[in-house]
C-alpha cells in the first residue's frame, strides 16, 4: 500500500497597518510548518493615504507573485475608539485583501485575540510573547526589527492551526495544551 503524499500549502499571513504592515509566509507539509519568510512593508515616509494604499497593494501583489501562496490570512481590525484609525486600518486590510482576490486566493480573517490564543494559548499575550513562541515553534534566531513581522507570521501560523476535518467543519483548540495533545508530530 502506497503512502499518500503529505499535503503541502504555502500560507501568507498579513498584519495590516498604514505605517508598518507585517507579513509572514510559512510552508505547511502535512502537520509540519516551516518559516519561509517574514518582514515588513514600511509606509511612514508617505504622507498621502492613497499612496500608502497603493504601496500596500503593490507590495502584497509582489509577495504573492514571489511566494505563490495557496491562501491568505489577515488580522481583522479590532474595535477602537478612534474612528479615523479604524477607517484607515480597514482600508489597508481591504487593499491587501484585494491583492489576494486579484489572484483568486482564498482569504480568511482572524481577530487579534484568536491569533494570540492560537499561537500562545493566551488571548491577551503581548507582541513579545507571540514573537517568543514563534521563535520556538519555527526555530529561528533572528529578532525582526519590527514586531509587526512576527505579528504577520502569527496570522499565518494561526491559519495553519485551524484544521478542517472531513465533515468540512474546522477544528479549533481551547488552548496550547489541547493543540499539542492533538498534534504531537508538529511540536518537537
UniProtKB/TrEMBL annotation:
It is found in: Cytoplasm. Gene3D superfamilies: Ribonuclease H-like superfamily/Ribonuclease H. Binds 2 Mg(2+) ion per subunit. Mg(2+) 1 binds at residues 15, 148. The active site is at residues 15, 75, 148. Its cofactor is Mg(2+). Mg(2+) 2 binds at residue 75. Homodimer which binds Holliday junction (HJ) DNA. The HJ becomes 2-fold symmetrical on binding to RuvC with unstacked arms; it has a different conformation from HJ DNA in complex with RuvA. In the full resolvosome a probable DNA-RuvA(4)-RuvB(12)-RuvC(2) complex forms which resolves the HJ. Belongs to the RuvC family. This is Crossover junction endodeoxyribonuclease RuvC.
Amino acid at each position: 500500500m502506497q503512502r499518500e503524499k503529505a499535503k503541502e500549502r504555502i500560507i501568507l499571513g498579513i498584519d495590516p497597518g498604514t505605517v508598518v504592515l507585517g507579513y509572514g509566509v510559512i510552508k505547511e507539509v502535512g502537520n509540519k510548518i516551516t518559516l519561509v519568510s517574514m518582514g515588513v512593508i514600511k509606509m511612514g515616509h508617505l504622507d498621502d493615504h492613497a499612496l500608502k494604499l497603493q504601496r500596500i497593494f503593490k507590495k502584497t501583489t509582489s509577495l504573492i507573485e514571489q511566494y505563490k501562496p495557496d491562501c491568505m490570512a489577515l488580522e481583522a481590525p479590532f474595535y477602537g475608539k478612534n474612528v479615523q484609525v479604524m477607517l484607515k486600518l480597514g482600508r489597508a486590510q481591504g487593499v491587501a485583501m484585494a491583492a489576494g482576490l486579484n489572484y483568486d486566493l482564498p482569504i480568511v480573517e482572524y481577530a487579534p485575540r484568536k491569533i494570540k490564543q492560537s499561537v500562545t494559548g493566551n488571548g491577551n499575550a503581548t507582541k513579545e510573547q507571540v514573537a517568543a513562541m514563534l521563535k520556538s515553534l519555527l526555530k529561528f534566531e533572528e529578532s525582526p526589527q519590527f514586531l509587526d513581522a512576527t505579528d504577520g507570521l502569527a496570522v499565518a501560523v494561526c491559519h495553519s492551526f485551524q484544521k478542517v476535518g472531513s465533515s468540512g467543519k474546522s477544528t479549533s483548540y481551547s488552548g496550547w495544551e489541547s493543540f499539542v495533545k492533538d498534534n504531537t508530530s508538529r511540536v518537537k
